[in-house]
């Protein structure tokens, strides 16, 4: 068993698909309405989505330098550990795993099941009950865990396929809008009242939430082929393509509905697609279904590498660091599945957890960004196959954005801070049971 380890089987295409698939979930189909409620000017809406994409690209380029320095399993855990030490690194990894992976994954599974219920009602004449939705969500989690248990190449292939499908669906909405819609926003239907309020802070948080989770590709850094070249490329091209898709989607929403129509339709993508073709609403529901399923698969694939890496370093039980004969960390996969199911059936509602997950994710990103500057000073001799262009401006832009998200969320969602704090306290308790680690040397990882 000791000889088993992770293998570098993720190509540039698969790594880029992980970036895109991790970002595109259900957010882009709903959050544009919230942004439009704050700013009813088309040019402001497009500017915010463009700036959100540029901030995301800046963060991806910043983290790419760290990913090529430490191309090991664990991503955020590894970066914080290298910058600030083992204890902060473990706490960051633990919080990101519980809130940034398990909480979000359980919520995405419910989004998948809810849209499956909508389609069942539309075509079969009956919706699923609340319990039915929960069991369907659990089914999706079990099936996708099995998909990733079969092998990395198979799991990554499924992720790439689903990512292509949902990217094409989002692009199709944009292309159909400009090809077939007349662009008459005055006729836009009203499905929700205009609420407004919150202004810039609410709009920026909504945009950056939709762009979240691009860092997932770094969590599988130990399994990416030629990481010195492919990690920076996948992070850049993945975030760039998401930006193009998001700005294009918002442009199509504006063309069909106008700012006021976007603001008055909570399900903005459904409203826009319904104006283009009669079956547009069903198409969007199916697109969200595929998008959520693919997003869930990418989350399961990458999420398991966090507890695996922490267990290998001795912070978690040895069984979680187990790697099977297909070089898959199945112990960590089963732990992840158990965590999903506990949250799914134990809590059932995820409003507070999603707020906490957003806060926790950006808190860790902020710590990573600070760690980036720390490592520039404390580890100048560590090999950096890639150095972020535009230093220090590009990392500073992302650092300011992360500080903004953390600060605003802390002021508006104190429950998110408390949930994150409790999660950190539980993680601190686990430190008392730490055993000697088995982390591989940098040379061993490089040769893998």
Written account of the structure:
The protein is an all-alpha fold. The chain has one domain: Amino acid/polyamine transporter I (Up-down Bundle), CATH 1.20.1740.10. Helices cover 73% and strands 0% of the residues. α3 (42-69) packs antiparallel against α10, α3 packs across α16 and α15 (351-378) packs across α17 (414-430). The radius of gyration is 21 Å and the shape is globular. The two termini are 16 Å apart.
Number of helices: 18
Instruction: Indicate the percent of residues in helices.
Output: over 70%
Order of helices and strands: HHHHHHHHHHHHHHHHHH
CATH architectural label: Up-down Bundle
CATH topology title = Amino acid/polyamine transporter I
- Per CATH, the class reads Mainly Alpha
Distance N to C terminus: 16 Å
Number of domains: 1
Q: Characterize the main sheet.
A: none
Please state the CA-atom Rg, rounded to the nearest Å: 21 Å
Distinctive features:
Amino acid/polyamine transporter I; 448 residues; 0% strand; single chain; mainly alpha; 73% helix; 18 helices
């Amino acid at each position: 068993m000791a000889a088993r380890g992770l293998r570098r089987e993720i190509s540039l295409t698969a790594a880029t698909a992980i970036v895109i698939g991790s970002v595109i979930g259900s957010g882009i189909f709903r959050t544009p309405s919230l942004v439009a409620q704050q700013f009813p000017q088309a040019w402001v809406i497009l500017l915010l989505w463009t700036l959100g994409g540029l901030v995301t690209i800046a963060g991806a380029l910043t983290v790419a330098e760290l990913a090529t320095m430490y191309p090991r399993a664990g991503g955020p855990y590894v970066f914080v550990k290298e910058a600030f030490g083992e204890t902060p690194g473990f706490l960051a990894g633990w919080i990101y795993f519980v809130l940034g992976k398990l909480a979000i994954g359980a919520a995405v599974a419910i989004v998948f099941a809810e849209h499956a219920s909508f389609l069942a009602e539309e075509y079969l004449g009956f919706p699923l009950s609340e319990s039915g939705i929960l069991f369907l969500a659990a089914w999706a989690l079990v099936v996708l865990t099995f998909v990733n248990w079969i092998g990395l190449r198979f799991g990554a292939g499924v992720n790439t396929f689903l990512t292509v499908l949902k990217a094409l669906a989002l692009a199709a909405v944009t292309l159909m809008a400009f090809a077939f819609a007349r662009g008459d926003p005055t006729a836009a239907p009203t499905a929700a009242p205009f609420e407004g309020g919150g202004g810039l802070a609410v709009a920026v948080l909504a945009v950056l939430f939709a762009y979240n989770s691009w860092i997932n590709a770094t969590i599988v850094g130990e399994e990416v082929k030629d990481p010195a070249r492919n990690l920076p490329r996948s992070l850049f091209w993945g975030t760039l393509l998401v930006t193009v898709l998001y700005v294009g989607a918002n442009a199509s929403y504006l063309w069909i509905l106008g700012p006021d129509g976007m603001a008055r339709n909570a399900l903005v993508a459904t409203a826009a697609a319904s104006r283009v073709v009669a079956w547009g609403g069903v198409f969007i529901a199916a697109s969200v279904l595929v998008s959520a399923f693919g997003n869930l698969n990418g989350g399961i694939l990458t999420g398991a590498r966090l507890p695996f890496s922490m267990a290998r370093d001795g912070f978690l039980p040895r069984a979680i660091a187990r790697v099977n004969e297909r070089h898959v960390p199945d112990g960590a996969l089963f732990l992840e599945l158990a965590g999903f199911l506990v949250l799914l059936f134990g809590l059932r509602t995820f409003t507070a957890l999603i707020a906490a997950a957003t806060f926790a994710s950006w808190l860790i990103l902020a710590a990573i960004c600070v760690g980036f500057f720390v490592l520039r000073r404390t580890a100048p001799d560590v090999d950096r196959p890639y150095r972020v262009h535009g230093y220090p401006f590009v990392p500073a832009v992302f650092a300011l954005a992360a500080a903004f998200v953390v600060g605003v969320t802390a002021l508006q969602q104190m429950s998110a801070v408390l949930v994150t704090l409790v999660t950190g306290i539980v993680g601190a308790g686990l430190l008392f049971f730490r055993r000697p680690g088995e982390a591989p040397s940098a040379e061993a990882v490089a040769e893998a």
